[in-house]
UniProtKB/TrEMBL annotation:
This is Amidohydrolase/deacetylase family metallohydrolase. It comes from Mixta hanseatica. InterPro entries: Amidohydro-rel, Deacetylase_Atu3266-like, EF_0837-like, Metal-dep_hydrolase_composite, Metal_Hydrolase. The lineage of its organism: Bacteria, Pseudomonadati, Pseudomonadota, Gammaproteobacteria, Enterobacterales. Residues 48-346 form the Amidohydrolase-related domain. Its EC number is 3.5.2.3. Keywords: Hydrolase. The keyword Hydrolase applies. GO terms for molecular function: dihydroorotase activity. It is an enzyme of class 3 (hydrolase).
Length: 377
């Protein structure tokens, strides 16, 4: 007897399947016979994918600048897992852990290499903020919650320190087992070429389609040589849309040249969620239909590719043994304006509507899901 069977779910390849869940894990996918304590029969139009993972969010409720509640950006919008990208450092990450334990959404953290995280906007302007032994102690206190480190390497953050904080981040990474490193890029200095040269396989560049001078493209619209080499070494690209870091023009040109993101993430927090231009991970994902990506490419970027980049080895795939994290959604076709972070608007035709998030077998139906009444609850 399974705990739950969802029947007639539509996968992104348009196959209709049943999914059985047992003890918080996926037990079977395909034509499932047998019984369950709970069964949900879908009407064949609702899509189901592995649970969406947002690789870059801000959900430390006490952050003075970038705060939000995990469930507002998580299960309420179909996202089953969020990764707080450096809101906290060694001094306050325990508080982030504590405050997110009651959330339905699964929360992980990338630890800011600066002790106090993003309490100010220039957390790496004082190198004394980078305390290697405090980072190591935090990693030992919260293994399984802190899954990597974050360094914001742009002029307003590093002040006069140039590339030095990134060199220290690489040392911290190597001294702690080579865990994932996410590097934020923004205004220069330091120059993106210099940043890219420091990065190695598995390192993640976030804000990869930003429209600032430190963009990945040259003024002629070609991929910078240093970024090209970094990608050849296995450096990963993360979208990290945010209030100021996503340009349709850059993304469209890059994607047309085959420079696709590894992960699509939102960089969401309460302000850009409520006022835009981010709104939700689903809204950010919808933008990629308009600039040259397919449904399965987009879903890959928030499921197995996100899990791979962050080494969440038990997530991201609809296969027996993986965590029973699922997102149910529909696609709607209608003309709606979409806005990037640079003030450019384009008309979107296809949009994601998340209906429910299932986390370790537990359901949260979104407001749209309730309105559509597609689950025989
Ligand atoms: Zn961010």
């Amino acid at each position: 007897m399974f705990d739950l069977i969802i029947r007639r779910a539509r996968l992104v390849d348009e196959q209709l399947v049943d999914i059985a869940i047992q003890d918080g894990k996926i037990a079977a996918v395909g034509q499932v016979s047998g019984q369950a304590k709970d069964e949900r029969l879908l009407d064949g139009t609702v899509y189901l994918s592995a649970g969406w993972i947002d690789s870059h969010v801000h959900c430390y409720p006490k952050s003075p600048i970038y705060h939000d509640e995990a469930d507002n950006i998580g299960v309420a919008t179909g996202v089953t897992t969020v990764v707080d990208a450096g809101s906290t450092g060694a001094a306050d990450v325990d508080d982030l852990w504590q405050l997110t334990r009651k959330a339905q959404t699964q929360v992980y953290a990338l630890l800011n290499i600066a002790r106090t995280g993003i309490v100010t906007q220039n957390e790496l302007a004082d190198l004394k903020q980078i305390d290697k032994s405090a980072v190591r102690a935090a990693l030992q206190r919260l293994p399984g919650f802190i899954i990597g480190i974050k360094a914001r390497i742009s002029s307003s953050v590093v002040g006069e320190n140039g590339i030095r904080p990134l060199q220290l981040a690489k040392e911290i990474q190597q001294e702690n087992g080579g865990l994932p490193l996410m590097v934020h890029i923004g205004n220069n200095p330091p120059n993106l070429d210099e940043i890219a040269e420091q990065l190695s396989a598995g390192d993640i560049i976030t804000h990869c389609y930003n429209g600032k001078p430190n963009r990945i493209l040259t003024p002629e619209g070609e991929l910078r040589q240093a970024v090209k080499k970094a990608l050849q070494r296995g450096v990963r690209l993360d979208v990290g849309h945010g209030s100021a870091s996503f340009s349709f023009e850059v993304a469209r040109r890059a994607i047309a040249q085959g420079i696709l993101p590894d992960t699509i993430s939102s960089d969401i927090y309460c302000r850009n969620r409520i006022d835009g231009p981010v709104k939700s991970l689903a809204h950010v994902m919808s933008k990629f239909f308009s600039i040259g990506m397919t449904l399965s490419q987009i879903i890959d970027c928030v499921t197995w590719k996100a899990a791979e980049g962050l080494r969440l080895t038990h997530k991201g795939r609809l296969e027996p043994g993986f965590d029973a994290d699922l997102t149910l959604f529909t696609l709607s076709n209608e003309a709606r304006p979409l806005l990037d972070s640079e003030g450019e608007t384009l008309e979107g035709q296809t949009h994601f509507t998340p209906l429910a998030a299932v986390v370790a077998g537990q359901w949260t139906v979104t407001d749209e899901g309730k309105a559509k009444n597609v689950f025989d609850l």
